[in-house]
Design goal:
By secondary structure, the protein is an alpha+beta fold. It has seven helices and eight strands; from the N terminus they run βαββββαββαβαααα. Helix content is 29%, strand content 34%. 17% of the residues are buried.
C-alpha cells in the first residue's frame, strides 16, 4: 500500500467545497485540521478537529452553520486565544464520503483545510493510485493541483502489543470482541465502564490512546 499526500491550492473550487460541506466554513475559520476520525459514513462524522478561528469566533459559533450539520461540539483544549481542539459530531448527508467510497482507501491524518489550500492524505492500494489522483485533480486546474508525496506503508503488527498498556489492551480487546466498533454499536462506552467499574470518560481515554498508538504503528512510513 501507499500513502499519497495531495494538495489543491489557490482558489479552492466552490463545487469541491460544496461536496465536502464547507461552503461557509471560512467565514468563521482560518484553518481546520482533522486530527482523528472515530466514525465516518454517508451521514455521520465523529472526529477530533483543530480549529483556528477568524476574529472573535468560538467553537460554539459553528453550530450556526446549518450546512455543516454539527450537532455537538466540545472544547478539549485551548491552544491560544483563537485555536481550539474539539470533539465534533456532525450529522448530514455526506457527498464526499459517497464519492470516495468508490475507492478502497483510508483517510490519513491530519487532513488540512484553509482558504488557500486543502491537503489530503490517503492510504491506497498501488493499483488504484492513478484513479484516486484523477478523482481529485478533476476539481481544479493542473497548476493548482500537486502531489506532495507518495510513500510506501510498512506495518509492524508485532509491536502493537508492546506499545499498549495492560489496561489499554484489555479494554480494547473487550470493546472489539463485544462490537463497540461495529455500525451500529453492539455495546456502549457506558456498558464497558460498568464492566470495568470505571468512569465513561476513562473508557474513552483508554480507547483513544490505544487507537492512536495502533494507527501510528500500522501506518508508520519508511522512506
Amino acid at each position: 500500500m501507499k500513502k499519497i499526500i495531495l494538495q489543491i491550492k489557490n482558489e479552492i473550487p466552490k463545487e469541491f467545497m460544496e461536496i465536502i460541506g464547507f461552503k461557509s466554513l471560512f467565514d468563521y475559520v482560518e484553518k481546520l485540521e482533522v486530527l482523528h476520525i472515530f466514525r465516518y459514513d454517508n451521514y455521520n462524522l465523529i472526529a477530533i478537529q483543530k480549529f483556528k478561528f477568524c476574529c472573535d469566533y468560538k467553537p460554539i459559533d459553528l453550530l450556526k452553520i446549518k450546512e455543516m450539520g454539527i450537532k455537538y461540539i466540545e472544547e478539549l483544549a485551548i491552544i491560544n486565544e483563537n485555536e481550539y481542539i474539539c470533539f465534533v459530531k456532525t450529522q448530514k448527508e455526506n457527498k464526499f464520503h459517497e464519492l470516495i467510497s468508490d475507492f478502497d482507501v483510508l483517510l490519513h491524518y491530519p487532513i488540512i483545510f484553509t482558504k488557500n489550500y486543502i491537503k489530503i492524505s490517503i492510504i491506497s492500494y498501488e493499483t488504484q493510485l492513478k484513479s484516486v489522483i484523477d478523482f481529485f485533480s478533476k476539481y481544479t486546474s493542473k497548476e493548482n493541483f500537486k502531489i506532495l508525496s507518495i510513500m510506501p506503508i510498512k506495518s509492524n503488527i508485532n509491536s502493537i502489543y508492546s506499545i499498549l498498556s495492560a489496561k489499554q489492551l484489555e479494554i480494547m480487546k473487550y470493546a472489539v470482541q463485544n462490537g463497540y466498533f461495529q455500525i451500529p454499536r453492539k455495546i456502549s462506552a457506558e456498558q464497558i465502564a460498568k464492566h470495568y467499574n470505571i468512569s465513561i470518560s476513562a473508557v474513552h481515554e483508554h480507547l483513544r490512546k490505544a487507537e492512536r498508538k495502533i494507527f501510528e504503528v500500522l501506518f508508520r512510513i519508511e522512506i
